[in-house]
Design a protein that fits this description.
Radius of gyration: 12 Å
Number of helices: 4
Helix content: 55-70%
Largest sheet: none
Mean pLDDT: 88
Order of helices and strands: HHHH
Low-confidence stretches: none
Structural class: mainly alpha
Distance between the termini: 25 Å
Number of strands: 0
């Protein structure tokens, strides 16, 4: 379960938004004009802060917090 208060940097928030819209690491790297390694480091930090191991788990945790709109 996601900790109640998770503080993300601006760059982490941008990357998280891109992840949640289904973009790949390659696409995110290109959009943010950064290296793949840096993008992966940010993703690792996000996963650590949210206490999950995979992007798929991250998406599932966040989706469980957002009410479904019909």
């Amino acid at each position: 379960q996601i900790p109640l208060k998770v503080r993300l940097t601006h760059q982490e928030t941008c990357i998280l938004n891109h992840i949640l819209t289904g973009q790949t690491i390659k696409q995110i790297t290109s959009l943010l004009s950064t290296s793949r390694r840096n993008t992966e480091k940010y993703i690792t930090r996000i996963l650590d802060k949210v206490n999950v191991k995979k992007i798929k788990e991250l998406k599932a945790e966040i989706e469980s917090l957002v009410p479904k709109i019909i």
